[in-house]
Design brief:
single chain, about 220 residues, mainly alpha, 2 domains, about 0% strand
């Protein structure tokens, strides 16, 4: 028998890293098995397997919103192109870059984040409208949480992308894209790895919002009455 408690980190993971509420019966069974003489390695293996199964089921249950998020992020270059065409060289940029450093850089980041989050939430609205057309009335109680989730998910993913771009960007020799002559069709057909890499925050932000709009055990139907 093991007189001590199971590993605290593994227990914490079981309680906090599962996409659904921790199965108390499973947690109790693992605890009893460990106290009966199971090894630390066995306990870790069971926890990791349980988390893998729970996340696999949760992702599968939300396959429709995640697929939509992937498709929506695919058209983000067209959104960027429209923004650059209409606002990229306008008076707003002139005023912004006349502000003393570092506030000009802060304004640029805030404006870029607002532009990107707006695109994310346009995608959320499109998905919600499609669900309403297909299924009927909507539950609106989770929209505040969905907005926060989308912002946090985009901020984390965007920060990672910026950090990686600043690290490897000076050493990359890929061909530059001239946004002034690029068409919408060419923007959508631009499937270079770098383009897909910069689409990643849009996918994570949209997926985070739609994930929050879905209840734990249900899929798209959780958005409808």
């Amino acid at each position: 028998m093991n007189p001590g408690n199971p590993p605290r980190i593994a227990t914490w993971m079981m309680q906090h890293l599962s996409p659904a509420r921790c199965d108390e019966a499973l947690a109790g069974d693992l605890f009893e098995e460990y106290r009966a003489g199971r090894s630390v390695g066995w306990y870790w293996l069971q926890v990791v397997a349980a988390l893998a199964v729970a996340w696999s089921r949760s992702v599968w249950q939300r396959r429709a919103p995640l697929l939509f998020a992937a498709i929506w992020s695919f058209i983000s270059p067209a959104w960027m192109l429209l923004y650059l065409r209409h606002f990229g060289n306008g008076r707003l940029d002139d005023v912004m870059w006349r502000i003393p450093f570092p506030w000009s850089t802060v304004c640029a980041f805030v404006l870029g984040a607002a532009r990107d989050v707006l695109f994310v939430w346009l995608g959320v609205l499109v998905y919600v409208v499609l669900c309403r057309i297909a299924f009927g009335n909507l539950h609106l109680r989770r929209f505040a949480r969905a907005f926060l989730s989308s912002f946090l998910a985009y901020a984390i993913a965007g920060s990672c992308v910026i950090a990686i771009a600043l690290t490897v960007g000076p050493h990359s020799n890929g061909p530059a894209v001239d946004w002034r002559t690029l068409t919408l069709i060419e923007a959508l057909e631009n499937l270079r790895p770098l383009t897909i890499f910069f689409d990643f925050p849009f996918f994570i932000g949209t997926a985070g919002a739609l994930w929050s709009l879905s209840s734990e055990p249900e899929t798209t139907a959780s958005l409808v009455a």
